Amino acid sequence: MASETKQKRHFKANKGFSGQDQGTREMHPLLPFLISGGKVTERYYFKHLSKFDDKYKFQIKPEYFGKESEYTTEFPKRIDKILKGNPEAKIYCIFDWDTVHANKTRLKNHKIFERHIKEAINNGNVVLCPSMPSIEYWFLLHFSNITRLIPTCEAAAELLQPHMSSYFSKKEDINLFKTLKNEQAVEIPAWVIALCADGKLELAIKRAEDNINAAEAANDLENQSFSFVYKVFKEYPY
């Protein structure tokens, strides 16, 4: 768990039933918000973590999750809405990078998106957490420290299948990629509990951070897979 001295803690006041501030207010930590391009896999992953892992609690609300391909236009709306009501909020933006990587139009849109939220990033309110190629690579780091460039989410899921298919079915021939997109399959928390058990979550955090630091030092991050999702956990509690 990250030290509380690393960053300023953010708090919110405890309000009465009327919603008005009371004369004496108890201050509670303002839990981090999560915005994701994926409305199934990512949403349920963090929802289950928040419920079953005492270390990590998040503001998980379905309306903050939308279409992956539209994150550059949808995320700013969600960020503005959150900060309007919670100026001290911490917001983690989680999205896949495979559809942006090497796509000039989408890279341009991403740069526009970053400019729009530049102030929020500089103020420490917003942290961008892309994964190349996708959230499946973040899951893969729980089992294997592969750093080579994996081009697509389907390819990442194929590498992940031997490790996670048993979390959903006794059949070895299930399509893990489709299963992770199936709301009925992922709404059952057992898969997240198994994924994070036996120190695998902590291992993934360390691998992701170490790999990114090494790649950035060599100016070679764009030529390998990576996941900034580790920041959600590394910085907790902010």
Task: Outline the low-pLDDT stretches.
Answer: 1-26
| Number of E-state strands | 6
- What number of domains? 1
Profile the largest sheet. Answer: 4 strands, mixed
Secondary structure elements and pairings:
Layout (H helix, E strand, L loop, with lengths): L10 E3 L13 E3 L3 E4 L4 H12 L18 H15 L5 E6 L7 H13 L1 H5 L3 E7 L2 H6 L12 H12 L11 H5 L2 H4 L3 H7 L3 H18 L8 E2 L2 H5 L4
Parallel strand pairs: 3-4, 4-5
Antiparallel strand pairs: 1-2, 5-6
What would you say this structure looks like, in words?
The protein is α/β, with parallel strands linked by helices and 238 residues long. It has one domain. 43% of the residues lie in helices and 11% in strands. The protein is built from 11 helices and 6 strands. A 4-stranded mixed β-sheet has the order 3-4-5-6, with helices on both faces. It has a two-stranded antiparallel ribbon with strand order 1-2. Helix 2 runs parallel beside helix 3 (104-116). The longest helix has 18 residues, at 200-217. It starts with 10 loop residues before the first strand and ends with a helix. The relative contact order is 0.15. Residues 1-26 have low confidence and may be disordered.
